[in-house]
Amino acid sequence: MSNAIPHLYPIGIDPADIDFMGHVNNASYLKWVQAAVLDHWRALAPSDAVAGHLWVALKHEITYRKPTFLGDDVIATVLLEKVQGARAFYETVIRRGEEVLAEVKSSWCCVDADTLRPARLARDIIQRFFSAE
Q1: Best exposed site among 28, 56, 64, 77 by fewest CB in 10 Å?
Q2: pTM listed for this prediction
Q3: Which residues pair with 100 in a beta bridge?
Q4: Residue 112 in contact with residue 53, Cβ under 8 Å?
């Protein structure tokens, strides 16, 4: 496997995301990352894999670079860095134009939708997230 295929996820900022300081509350970034990673999975995985697997967040590490405000045009770029066993490691960068607002490293556990036990993904499914070049 070589380069991860980037997945762009537009983020809508809701008035409920804004905190007492007038910018997006830190908790909203977690909501955005979860939505972006799951959208990435649904966009690239085959439908039977999407139906048969769920994802549980294990860890998020967020570096906040600049505040985000209501009305900002924000997009998340999601990259699957690697898969080890039932765990997947992601990098998500949230931007307003060229400005980096936040960088998020996260790890997730894939679980079987029926048993809710950790599940390894087949190699051919993992390969869908990386370019052949």
Answers
A1: 56
A2: 0.92
A3: 95
A4: yes
